[in-house]
Amino acid sequence: MAAVLAEVEKNMFTAEVEVAPQVAAAPMVPMQRPITIAETMAQLREEFPGNVLDEDFTKIREIIESETYVEFLKRTYPQENQFQNFDEFWALASVDEEGSLAFLSTYFKSPLAAPTARDVDVLYYMTLLERNLNVRLYHREDEGQKGRFEMLMNEPVRSWLEERFINADDTVNVLLLIKVFAHHSFLVTQQQEDDREKIHALFVEHGAQKGFLRVALLEPVCLGHVLKDFTDVQVFKKWVDGKFSNK
């Protein structure tokens, strides 16, 4: 046995000697550190000089459509690996499925059916519409009552109302309907105010130009809502400054 172990040890030593030069000769691959926010900002500013907060949000739209920005999103949000551009990213990232299910579960309890993906989809549709109607008010376009009525009368909300708020005897569960819609409207308004405060903080700390670019980098979902709802940059600036806030 001693002779066998000695032979094994000898062979291991020989193998180590043979492998060692190969390992030593292997080229060193430098570790690549992540690109910082500041570096990404500098690169975008070099590629897209000029006013970031120009009329019609033209410059920021060019920025978020760029390869540099989309690659930044892919590095920052690897879990959202199904997108090739900002619109596709936003369609995935802007859906708060967990939060929506938590909200719906507050009202749709046994014996009512538990919330489903369809409920989340309809709530998301209603959220986008509610946000847009709120912003239209800032633009002096009061379409709230008309817009909400049209939402209720058309798909996908109409059939959802029939499924969720019509009882077995064909009566309407009015109390549940009022609770769900009133609470949802309140939460949407609060979400928009939270977004405004985030943007305002970045503007105060970095100025409007660098601040708005940081919104694109740090709060891309928030930026998507801004570009989807605001059509007037001056109205947007007033909103950021809290001109329309109730606080």
Describe what you observe in this structure.
It contains twelve helices and no strands. The chain has about 250 residues and is mainly alpha-helical. It has a domain at about 95-205. The longest helix is centred in the last third of the chain and has 45 residues, at about 175-220. Mean pLDDT is about 85; it is low at about 1-30.
H/E series, N to C? HHHHHHHHHHHH
* Continuous helix count: 12
Q: Helix/strand/pairing class, anyone? A: mainly alpha
Helicity level, as a percent range?
A: over 70%
Approximate strand percentage:
under 5%
Quote the distance from N terminus to C terminus. Answer: 86 Å
Defining traits:
247 residues; mainly alpha; 12 helices; globular
Task: Indicate the topology.
Layout: H1 2-25, H2 37-47, H3 58-64, H4 67-76, H5 86-93, H6 97-107, H7 117-138, H8 144-153, H9 157-165, H10 174-218, H11 220-229, H12 233-240
Helix pairs in contact: 6-7, 7-8, 7-10, 10-11
At a glance:
By secondary structure, the chain is mostly helical. The protein has helices at residues 2-25, 37-47, 58-64, 67-76, 86-93, 97-107, 117-138, 144-153, 157-165, 174-218, 220-229, 233-240. The protein has a domain at 97-207.
